[in-house]
Amino acid sequence: MGSVLKSAQAYKKLLDIEYMFILGRKNKKIMLTVSFDALNFFHLAGFQYLEDMPDILRSRRDLIFYRILNGDLTPGQISSSVFYSHIKDRVEYLEFLESIFDSNKTVFKYNPKVQAFSVIESEFLMKNELNSRNVFTFLSQDKSSGKYFCRSFFPQADRDYSLGQTNWTLLYKKKIHKSTGEEFVLYDKMNKNH
């Protein structure tokens, strides 16, 4: 599978993309717009766990992302951490985040209290299967913009974070390229002709 650089390159494409979801449950509809920011790559890749790399932990998180892209911080340097094995799967699956968003139809309203072991503060949880493994993507709202962002992301190790969560039905999803304004409808359950 991929490397830190491949995942960073794939994530860079997402900086120009937004997803708009309409979810429904019991005659209620909610709309979510999800956008991506260079700052979030650090946490999604799990770099906060590389405790033996203080330079990474002390640097501005968006700068770490751009240093990886321009080759100033190499995959070899990052994988030399003794803690890299803890984040290796996360880094490798992160390369596929766009296809996860493109294909996802399973969205839960996330209640952290249901998962007594969880410290993740998030409003929604997406669950996908990739390479015969569940992958969890947690979405939180940015209070200043009202848009959602990926708070956390990882393949399932032992716990299924979707257990006990409330499943919302995906009614509609589109992908928007911000630079061109192009929109692609990925899923439309509201329009029967689609």
Keywords:
eight-stranded antiparallel sheet, 8 strands, 194 residues, alpha+beta
Fold topology:
Elements: H1 4-14, E1 17-25, E2 28-35, H2 38-44, H3 54-58, H4 61-69, H5 75-79, H6 84-94, H7 97-103, E3 106-109, E4 124-130, E5 133-141, E6 148-155, E7 166-177, E8 183-188
Antiparallel strand pairs: 1-2, 1-7, 3-4, 3-7, 4-5, 5-6, 7-8
Helix pairs in contact: 1-6, 2-4
Overall description:
The protein is an alpha+beta fold and 194 residues long. The chain has seven helices and eight strands; from the N terminus they run αββααααααββββββ. Helix 1 (4-14) crosses helix 6 (84-94). The chain starts with a helix and ends in a 6-residue tail after the last strand. The model has no long low-confidence stretch (mean pLDDT 92).
Low-confidence parts: none
Radius of gyration: 17 Å
* Average predicted confidence as pLDDT: 92
Largest sheet: 8 strands, antiparallel
Summarize the model shown.
With 194 residues, the protein is of the alpha+beta class. 28% of the residues lie in helices and 32% in strands.
